[in-house]
Amino acid sequence: MDIAVIGSGISGLTTAYLCKNSGYNVTIFEREPKLGMDAHRVDLTNGEGFIDVPLRVMTPVGWKTVLKLADYLKVETFSIDVGLSYSWENGETWLSIPRVMRGSHMLPIPSSLKYITRKNIGYLREIKRLKKILNENTSWPLSYRLDQFFQDHYFKSDFVDYVLIPVLETITTCNRSLIRGYPAKLMVDSLSHIMSNQKMVRFAHGTKDLAGRLGANMLIHYGSAVKTIENRGHRILVTNERGDKAECDHLVTAVQANHLGILSEVINGEDASLLQSLTFDRGEIVCHQDERFMPKSRKDWCVLNYQMSKNLEDDCFTVWLNPIEPSLKSHTPMFQSWNPPRDKEIHGVLMRTYLERSVVTSKSENAWTKLEDYSHDQSRRIHFTGSWTYPGVPLLESAVLSAVRAASNIGAKIPWSL
Ligand SMILES: Cc1cc2nc3c(=O)[nH]c(=O)nc-3n(C[C@H](O)[C@H](O)[C@H](O)COP(=O)(O)OP(=O)(O)OC[C@H]3O[C@@H](n4cnc5c(N)ncnc54)[C@H](O)[C@@H]3O)c2cc1C
After folding, report:
1. In angstroms, rounded to a whole number, what is the distance separating the alpha carbons of residues 46 and 330?
2. Cβ proximity of 218 and 16 under 8 Å
3. What is the band of 48 on the pLDDT scale with cuts at 50, 70, 90?
4. pLDDT per residue as tens digits for the range 126-136
5. What percentage of the chain exceeds 70 in pLDDT?
6. Is there an atom of ligand 1 within 6 Å of 32 CB?
């Protein structure tokens, strides 16, 4: 049986791997010149280390399937401790919590006595209260929005705006108003995974390790976007802009819904409107060496550093990479910022690019229900995968779950227990 996969992000690579492992002929089409999952990595000169872009982190509770896949492929992971700092746009810090975990317990303790202010004590109490709510059973419908959750639990607006939403921006990388419209259940579940008294983990040798093992010995047409998809009797013909072709029995699309206009000749109106109903947001990611994105005092530097203007028009987060990327341990400070203010000149830029991400809105639930129905339809020849196709915040976990679902529907064996 012939399978064509469009896209080599984690969902495309995992579906392709599972299908190839089950003996099918697989061809991948990728518009980037290398594996899409690892396409934006920065390699420093003279083998001085590398930067994963974006930097993906997981927790053992929230990313069970990804970690099972990694384990199966013998991809090592390691634990990291992610502290948080909050500063104004000039680098003046108002709260810094460099180590959140003490052993296996979450104890957010500020870096200095100067941060034990009345306001910050209030915020830390709210974090404790939030953690208690997260431990309660939350079987809310997806129509129950985050904004409503804040109101119903009487969270003060300054705690929400200055402390909580920045953390949620890190999880969703979408703008504040889209976050407020997110289903509360998904956000609360994500927060409870993150605040679960378990350390976060990363791939020990970076994303390239997992991507490389998934994509090994695979036929991949790199560096050219798929342009046309046509029916050929019972088969489907995929052609990219360069003219590479593959005829297949099953087509797996592992690209975002807003890039699936290429399917117009092979899907019906219902599928087309499902794809069009979904929302995507984009932001800029910059790897650089500009210390002005960090707290003014080095003592306050944390792995995750939020900078915001008081009116919240500019807010950005910066990851300090050296403490969590072993290959950069003794390198000069390296950073990765998400959505730096547009008018701010950035020193020592290593790379910058825009990345897109799906956003969960009121339309997502309907789309997820339909996509789940499709996955039980044995007559389907076109399978949608990708983090946006699976219920939950679009993360590596939903991407891998969607790949497992598509591969199973095609008939591939899943070589680890689900
Ligand atoms: C800034 C940022 C930080 C993140 N941090 C985390 C994190 O810490 N933890 C976590 O779990 N998740 C994180 N995520 C989310 C996670 O990275 C995504 O959910 C996941 O990578 C999506 O994988 P995917 O395979 O569904 O899609 P993608 O990775 O988007 O793959 C789609 C692929 O299709 C290719 N493509 C598109 N159109 C075509 C075409 N016409 N022809 C050929 N190829 C095409 C693209 O080049 C791409 O390679 C983060 C996302 C962002 C943006």
Report:
1. 14
2. yes
3. confident
4. 988 988 888 88
5. 98
6. yes
Q: Is the model more confident about 23 or about 199? A: 23
Sequence ranges of the domains in the chain: 2-39+206-278+361-410, 77-202+290-347
Q: What are the CA-CA distances from residue 147 to residues 143, 156, 176, 281, 321 (Å)? A: 11, 12, 11, 19, 32
Looking up tokens 């560096």 gives 223
Tell me, using a 6 A CB cutoff, whether residue 395 lines ligand 1.
yes
27 lines ligand 1 (CB under 6 A): no
Asked whether residue 199 carries a pLDDT value surpassing 90, the answer given is: no
Length in residues, the chain: 418
- Residue 101 pLDDT greater than 70, yes or no: no
Per CATH, domain 2-39+206-278+361-410 is 3.90.25.10: no
Considering only CA atoms, which residue is closest to atom 38 of ligand 1? 255
Q: Which amino acid is at 47?
A: G
Work out the average pLDDT over 220-248.
97
Q: Name the residue at shortest CA distance from atom 9 of ligand 1.
A: 56
324, 318, 352: which is closest to 40 by C-alpha? 352
Is the per-residue pLDDT at 140 higher than 80?
Answer: yes
Share of the chain above pLDDT 90, in %: 84
Going by alpha carbons, the residue nearest to atom 22 of ligand 1 is 387
Ligand 1 within 6 A of CB of 169: no
Residue 1 is encoded by which pair of tokens?
A: 């049986």
pLDDT in tens, 309-328: 999 988 999 999 999 999 99
Tell me which of 242, 255, 358, 371 to substitute to probe ligand 1's pocket, judged by most ligand atoms within 8 Å of the beta carbon: 255
Closest ligand 1 atom number to CA of residue 399:
26
What are all long-range contacts of 313-317, with beta carbons under 8 Å and residues at least 24 apart?
Answer: 314/89, 314/341, 315/166, 315/169, 315/176, 315/339, 316/340, 316/341, 317/166, 317/169, 317/170
Residue nearest to atom 33 of ligand 1 (CA): 7
